[in-house]
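User: I'm writing a tutorial on reading structure tokens. Could you give me a worked example: one chain, its sequence, then its tokens, then a sentence or two explaining what the tokens reveal?
Assistant: Sure. Here is the example chain.
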Amino acid sequence: MGSAWLDAPAVQTWRTVCLAITVQALPFLLLGTALSGAINAFVPADLFTRVLPKRPALAVPVAGAAGAVLPGCECASVPVANSLIRRGVTPAAAFAFLLSAPAINPIVLTATAVAFPNNPAMVAARLLASLVTAAVMGWLWLWLGKEKWLRPAAAHTGHQHGHSRWNEFRQGFQHDFLNAGGFLVLGAMAAATFNVAVPRSVLDTFSGSPWLSVLFLAGLAVVLAVCSEADAFVAASLTGFSPTARLAFMVVGPMVDLKLIALQAGTFGRGFAWRFSTATTVVAVAVSVLIGGALL
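And here are its predicted structure tokens:
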């Protein structure tokens, strides 16, 4: 009798949603931490600083555009961005990459095209809005960011002579995965709690107002924590909302959600995570409204 509450429908739904978010994100977290470990152990320390433009203001959009080459979700981008910073890349460029990679990679754009058939404008709007948001946030960090907001870099900072590269890869992978994995679970638990606690009728209340619908779907993207490879299908199902509101859902979600905030807090520190997430949300919503109004 004491454990009967575990079989309640709400609790079962909570477990299902929490597990689904964790399982959905875990492969991409593995990909990201593996890439992070590989960068740390095998890539020459000065490669990224040589490839990116010397001027930080130019390095930001280049790094943002480079996000298109990483076929993963937001869980993968955090450890990779952390590795880039440890290898000497300016944090502004690394953060532009962190924001753009989950939103503009080929898998996400293909999924968006499938979710919105015969609507190439939605794909173009998502690509452009995500790139602009990533670049603006990188430039804002150059202008207003402070190094003291960032947690000091971890000890694994590249290959050391006399050490096995594979051993360094294993150590870096283990450190990043265990650190990020715990925060991923915390974020999934928070998102599952919202899914169970908020009734579906709330959606209908906000869909009638153009401005409230944009703000509501932006907030919904934060708390639902849907992986960027799947969020276009969720957005397409929200047919009662305007195209601009659904665009905001797809732009904000890969850049700011509960599990990503938790991952950023665990990697860069809580002070950074709250400041950066708040600013990113404001910029992403504003850019989505402007670009959505122009293209959709």
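What the tokens reveal: The chain is about 75% helix and 0% strand. The first helix runs from residue 9 to 42.
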